[in-house]
Amino acid sequence: MNTDKTRVVVVPCSGIGKPFGTVSREAAYDLCDELRPESTRLVALAKLVLGDPEARELLARYPAVTIDGCKQMCASKMVTQSGGTVAQEVSVLDVFRRHKDLKPEGIAELNEAGMKLARVLAGEVAERLDSGEQPGKGANHV
User: Fold this and answer.
1) For residue 142, is it within any domain?
2) Which domain holds residue 15?
3) How far apart are CA 104 and CA 140, in angstroms?
4) Which candidate, 51, 54, 62, places its Cα nearest to that of 84?
5) I need a labelling partner for 35 at 20 to 30 A (CA). Which of 42, 55, 120, 127 fits?
């Protein structure tokens, strides 16, 4: 169970080789390293897939924000399968639909528009975290 309502685990997509997957990871880095380092903890999706005990323990203690790059929603599914609670389910595609001028291109390095989209997404998630919504009451879509 969550022992600290202000802390969340952030699990981004691992869509390697796809621009929207790269946007999800860049947004997670921005959220965890720059915007809310005191209240977030980044967990790589691969650690959940491999059953990493430390990653699973974090999910048992804290709600998760998942950032998925496609409709398959692998990060959300893996958090649930790992025993975690998804507090916010974020789709890069949904954010892109609201910001069509920010079309991401590139994989290893995103273009300027892709990096801006990642910053917008991270900002939206940070605002939701700041709003005081209670995590774990069902998935909230951003």
Assistant:
1) no
2) 8-134
3) 24
4) 62
5) 55
